[in-house]
Each structure stands twice: as C-alpha cells, then as structure tokens.
Amino acid sequence: MNLRFIHSLAILLVPFAAGVPRAHAEDWPAFLGKNRNGKSAEASLIEAFPAGGPSVRWRVAGGVGMSAVVVQGEIAVTSWNADGKQWLVALDASTGKIRWKSPMGPAYKNPMGDGPRATPTIAGNQVIGYSGEGILTVVELATGKELWRKDLMQELSAKPSEYGMSCSPLVIDDRVVVQVGAEDAMVVALAISDGRLLWKSGAGHAGYSSPVLMDIAGSKQVVSFGGTALVGIEPDTGKVLWSYPFETDYGCNTASPVWIDGGVFISSGENHGAVLLDIKKQGGTYSVSERWKSLDSKSVMRNEWQTSILLDDHLYGFDNVGAAGPVSHFSCIEAKTGKPVWQKSRFGKGNVVYADGKFWITTIEGELVIARADSKGMQELSRVELLEKNRQALTIANGYGYLRDDKDVLCIGLKK
Questions:
Q1: Residue 141 domain-assigned (yes or no)
Q2: Which residue of 118, 191, 222, 232 pairs with 196 in a disulfide if CB–CB is 3.0 to 4.6 A?
C-alpha cells in the first residue's frame, strides 16, 4: 500500500481515536470573552464538581486588583498591584508560572478598592492594558516588552472616574478603543501600532462600562455606555451616529451594553433600571426610541456591575436592590418586552457567564456555582468555595476555568 496514503489516512483518523470526539476549545482573549457577551462555545464541560472538589490545575500567588483573566493559547494575562506598581502579568496557562511582568504605572489606590480595574485585551501578538488612573499600555504577548504607552488623562485633559478607569480596551482591526471621559472625548481610538490618536468622540463622563462592537441598523458601530449617555459611533471616523441620555448617581453605568434583536439593552444599579432601545436609520439620520423601559426602584433589572446574558430571547442577570445595597436577585426577563419571568430572590451579588448549556456564576463571597436555567426556572447543579471575596467573572478557555481574588489566581479543570 502507498505509504503517503497511509500517512494521510492516519492524520484523518486522529480526531476519532478511541471513538472519542474532540471537545470544542476556545480562547477567551478579552473582557467577557471573544465576542464580549459573556458566552463561550466550549462544549463537553462538567455538570457538577466532584465530591472532593474541583480539579485544581494550579493555584499561584497574585496581587490586588479587579481585572479578570484573559487567555490565548498557552498564555493567561491579568493585572494587579504589587511592589508599588500596577503590573500586566502573563502566566503560563498550563502551570501558572509567571512568564513576564510589565509595569503599567504606580500602584493604584482607591477608597472603593485598590488595584487596576480594567481587564486586559489580547489581540494577535499584543496585550493592551488600561491602568486605574488611565494609562493605556501595549506590550508584546510573548515577552511583555512595552511597545508604547499613553497617559490619556494627561494628554486629553480628562479627569479619571471617581472609582477608577474601568473600561476594558476594545480592539477593532488596527485600532484600540477606550472610554476616557474628557470634555471633548468620551471615547477615543488609537492606532494599535504606535498609539497615534485616530479620533475622539462624544463628550463627558467615562463611566465604568466597556464598549462593544455591534451590528446596528445595518452597520458596524462602537456602542459605548458612558457615565451620562449611551452613544453609537462610526468605528473608522469616530462620528457620533446617535445618542441616548442615561444619567445615574456618580456616573455608575458599569455593565456593558447588550445587543438584543437589533436593539441595545442597557442597565444600571443605584436603583436606576433598564431600557431596550431601537435604533433606526432613515436617509442619513438615526433615530432612537424606547421599545421598553423599567426604571427606578421597581425595575425588572438593575445590573450593578454585571453584564446580563442573552439566551433564547431571555435575559438572565443580577438585579440589585437599592443604592448599591446588599440585596441582589438573580432574575430572568423576556428580552424583547421586559416582562419578568422568574426571580431567584436574594441570590447574592456575583457575576455570570455561559457555556455548554450552563450558567457559571461567581459569587462575591468567592464561590463558583454551576446552574441550568431557562424560561421555566433555575436549577443549581453544584457550588464550591474557591477563593476569597472577588467581583470577577469566570474565564472559560480551552477546557479550563480561571478566576482570581486579591491574593491568588486559580485554574481549575472544567472538561468532563
């Protein structure tokens, strides 16, 4: 038999060796995942934790900060305060060993918690970090070598948000987009190659949300939720296409906007509430209308800092009661109407992502909860305490889960 044929046949049969199909694996290179919506395409993940607890791949000492972990291939990246500085830190995804550390700026201090807030973004062979005081830094993914940095607050005469700059950088092709909050630049885009300012857009408070690239009214738009308004921006020019005022106490718009049926959902805590907007284009003009809104203390959804998950025409998320109060429900509403469907009362504060037909919920107390939920209700499958108090969402990448607090970074096995 022809040896070249045998070799080719062997290559074709490798994925089906032992009759076991290969599980789909996916990186998590940015805040809330590849598509910035909190959902992963990973499959064949566990239904519940083993009796002896999760399979810990590694646990390593970290530092103080609110950044989540992002993963591309064999590199996991986060940021923290340590030794008087804010650092971008790359860990080996297999072992947890530090590959490199790159300084972003002086250690960030804030009465609402120390350390950098924004989650870094991995784009190709580069990592983009945003420090608590607003320094944007780009480094090489492989080595941590700094390529450029910009103190955006100084260069654009902006004042940092009271609780720290929290926008996780959005990379679109050759540019990086962040919220700044200058009088003439709520949002800016810089060339990822050298930091050149490409455009500045909007005006006013930066808020604490992270922008998302969405398909709105037939075109790609940067949808940015600032401290006083939601805006749609043309990615190439920075032109504001439309805006919608949404002011909250202290500019605390923190959850990212969510695309729903061609419209945009936004939600805020501090008893503010939620709205689903329709954006239409007639000629060269955009119009914004409210498909539904639910505001004030009786709102159906008040996301304090957590971005809700859209699944099968329903939204699942944390509804916080009061002005940053201690009571939070886990709720399900009809996405297109805002009609309440069910509520898990007093579930507690946390964060949520979705993968393999399950919700992966991290509680502020350091637990990880696996649950199934649909329009009929919620079933908790498993719960385990992993870390101390934290606000980060779980990162799911290539069959593993990554989570951190102010002391440790943890990697656990999630594959069946």
A1: yes
A2: 191
Assess contact for 393 and 352: CB atoms under 8 A.
Answer: yes
Name the burial class of residue 17, with classes exposed (0-12), middle (13-18) and buried (19+) by CB atoms within 10 angstroms of its CB.
exposed
Whole-angstrom distance, CA of residue 147 vs CA of residue 125: 11
| DSSP β-bridge partners for residue 57 | none
pTM beyond 0.85: yes
Could you give the 3-state DSSP secondary structure of residue 96? coil
Tokens of 141: 């993914």
The pairing of strands 126-130 and 121-123 is antiparallel
Q: How far apart are CA 160 and CA 218, in angstroms?
A: 34
Q: How far is CA 278 from CA 224, 275, 335, 376, in A?
A: 15, 10, 13, 27
Nearest-5° Cα angle at 254, 257 to 248: 100
Domain harbouring 77, CATH code: 2.130.10.10
Nearest Cα residue to 127 out of 181, 73, 182, 57: 73
With 0-12 / 13-18 / 19 or more C-beta atoms within 10 angstroms meaning exposed / middle / buried, residue 145 is exposed
The answer to whether residue 317 is domain-embedded is yes
Q: Which of 280, 275, 337 is nearest to 302 (CA)?
A: 275
- What confidence tens digit (pLDDT) does each residue in 368-380 have? 999 999 999 999 9
Residue-wise pLDDT tens digits, 303-328: 999 999 999 999 999 999 887 777 89
Query: Residue 381 region, left (φ>0) first, then alpha (ψ -120 to 50), else beta?
Result: alpha
How many distinct structural domains can be found in the chain?
Answer: 1
